[in-house]
Design a protein that fits this description.
The chain is mainly β. The chain has a domain of 247 residues. It is 0% helix and 40% strand. A hairpin with a 4-residue loop joins strand 5 and strand 6. The radius of gyration is 19 Å and the shape is globular. The N terminus is likely disordered.
Length: 379
């Protein structure tokens, strides 16, 4: 059975009977209008009522972020504690900035199943954005810049999931209201600062929901199609099944990346993502085109480098760079920092590390947590 853990979309199911499989990685079920369709979104449930989504007013505009001079990995501590911490890590393993927030409460599907939600973290080209227990979204940057960005809807059975555009100008928000039948999913996009140009784009109810995974440039929004709920967890229960590349002004789907015959296998990057069958891995672009393929010995996490030239596969407790056969022993990579360094997370007693894919060397990080992205962000 397939057991691929995809680190950038860690699934949190506190008070559930099992921990779901992560996928950063979108089928039938919840979907968006096709790229050539002019009709309404296809429904996946007979229930059509949709609660009003009225985000709280955002604060005044924050200063423009300083441009980055280096790339950074993002770690996030476990969401099982009352507070969680976000860490920015350099390629040398040093923690250059960190911030703590109250942990958003667990959500369930009417107490009958665990609701599936991604980490409350998003990255732009220069900042990491993170959400607290009351829906306030704040940011930190490697130079110490920090502040409050906006507020998103949240509640006992409601969770907001968000992705900030690379230029820090817009935010895409999925609001999911969970019940025994799944979730009512609503998508809106608005100005990050001030909440202007608010557009309510899409609603649907059913057994699948969407996660805003990131922006491909500033004109394409990437959403992951994911089961709304899980009972008991298990292999394949909780992984996103496809990526939908949509117009952020209309929610019309432009491309679908991944399908039931080739499962999404790792963290996406600006170059695309890897999907797998039992014997073959395919590198896919953001138009869904297969760029190249290679053989694998069964499903395994496979992470595409930012420029698309390398794939880090994790067949066991080691990380292997497919194109060079370089092995980083005892290191399970979950994201790339830049085109020469991978990030491995871990909770005690495991130790997060940064690995150099050119030399094979690794350095320990003085923090605990799982992969939650990279700076610069964007897909």
């Amino acid at each position: 059975m397939r057991m691929v853990s995809l680190p950038l979309m860690v699934v949190t199911m506190r008070r559930a009977s099992a921990l779901g499989v992560l996928a950063v990685v979108l089928g039938t079920g919840c979907g968006l209008p096709g790229g050539v369709s002019t009709g309404s979104p296809a429904a996946s449930s007979s229930r059509t009522s949709t609660p009003a989504v009225s985000p709280a007013p955002a604060p005044t505009q924050s200063p423009s972020p300083a441009p980055l001079t280096s790339a950074y990995g993002v770690l996030m501590s476990a969401l099982s504690a009352p507070n969680y911490t976000v860490y920015l890590v350099g390629v040398d393993g040093r923690v250059v900035a960190s911030a703590q927030a109250s942990t958003p409460g667990a959500v369930t599907c009417a107490n009958a199943a665990a609701a599936l939600v991604p980490p409350p973290v998003s990255t732009s080209s220069a900042r990491v954005y993170y959400m607290d227990a009351v829906g306030v979204v704040r940011y930190i940057a490697p130079n110490g810049d920090a502040g409050r960005a906006t507020t998103v809807p949240i509640g006992p059975a409601r969770r907001a999931m968000f992705a900030v555009s690379p230029d820090d100008q817009r935010i895409a928000v999925i609001v999911a209201d969970f019940d025994a039948s799944g979730a009512t999913t609503s998508l809106y996009v608005e100005d990050l600062n001030g909440g202007g140009h608010h557009k309510q784009l899409y609603t649907q109810t059913g057994a699948y929901t969407l996660w805003p995974t990131g922006w491909h440039g500033t004109d394409n929004l990437v959403l992951a199609k994911v089961p709304s709920c899980t009972q008991g967890g298990g292999p394949g229960c909780c992984s996103p099944q496809e990526f939908h590349v949509v117009d952020p002004a209309t929610a019309v789907r432009r491309f679908t990346v991944g399908d039931p015959t080739c499962k999404l296998a790792g963290a996406p990057s600006p170059a695309g993502v890897v999907c797998e069958t039992d014997a073959q891995a395919n590198v896919l672009s953001w138009t869904g085109t297969t760029l190249r393929s290679f053989s694998i010995q069964g499903p395994t996490p496979a992470h595409l480098s930012p420029n698309g030239s390398l794939v880090a596969i994790v067949p066991s407790s080691d990380t292997v760079i497919q194109e060079t056969s370089r092995t980083l022993g005892g290191m399970q990579a979950c994201a790339w920092i830049d085109d020469n360094h991978v990030l491995a997370g871990g909770e005690s007693p495991a130790q997060p590390r940064v690995g150099d894919v050119t030399t094979g060397n690794a350095v320990a990080i003085a923090a605990q947590g799982t992969c939650a992205g990279r700076l610069p962000g964007g897909l």
